[in-house]
């Protein structure tokens, strides 16, 4: 056996180790992202639940009369969009944590729900009525929804998720 043969074998071993290390890092980052997604999904669930059970008296503590009227006149299709966002995010996060391909589909549902909510905000001038904090939350929702959709899409097509 020559020295060249040994060097080639060593190079193959090093390359294999580097590929395995990169895959390990990808799996760890996917786990971190999944943990973030679960936290975000739980936050969405809490926010959705609080909005559904809040009484006008409780709303008056946090919102102006104009904002309360805006919130109480939310159309049913927007409430459906909020439910889609909440359920899609939470289910997608759990499936991402379990490394299942269906995470991508759940995050797709969540993104559609988020876009429905944003369409309502544009159509009913919600960004103006709710003010800066409401606008910031809405923009944050869009950013997170797009990020989770993109990340699950990438993991789906890179083969990091199982059936």
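^ Assign residues to that structure.
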């Amino acid at each position: 056996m020559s020295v060249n043969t040994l060097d080639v074998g060593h190079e193959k071993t090093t390359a294999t180790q580097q590929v395995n290390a990169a895959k390990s890092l990808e799996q760890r980052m996917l786990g971190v992202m999944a943990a973030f997604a679960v936290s975000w999904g739980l936050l969405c669930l809490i926010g959705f639940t609080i909005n559904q059970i809040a009484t006008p008296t409780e709303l008056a503590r946090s919102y102006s009369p104009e904002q309360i009227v805006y919130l109480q006149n939310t159309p049913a299709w927007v409430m459906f969009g909020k439910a889609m966002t909440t359920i899609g995010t939470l289910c997608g996060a759990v499936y991402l944590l379990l490394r299942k391909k269906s995470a991508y589909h759940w995050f797709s549902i969540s993104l559609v729900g988020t876009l429905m909510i944003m369409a309502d905000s544009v159509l009913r001038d919600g960004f103006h009525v709710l003010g800066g904090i409401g606008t910031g939350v809405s923009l944050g929702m869009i950013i997170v929804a797009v990020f989770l959709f993109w990340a699950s899409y990438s993991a789906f097509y890179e083969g990091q998720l199982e059936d």
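The radius of gyration is 22 Å.
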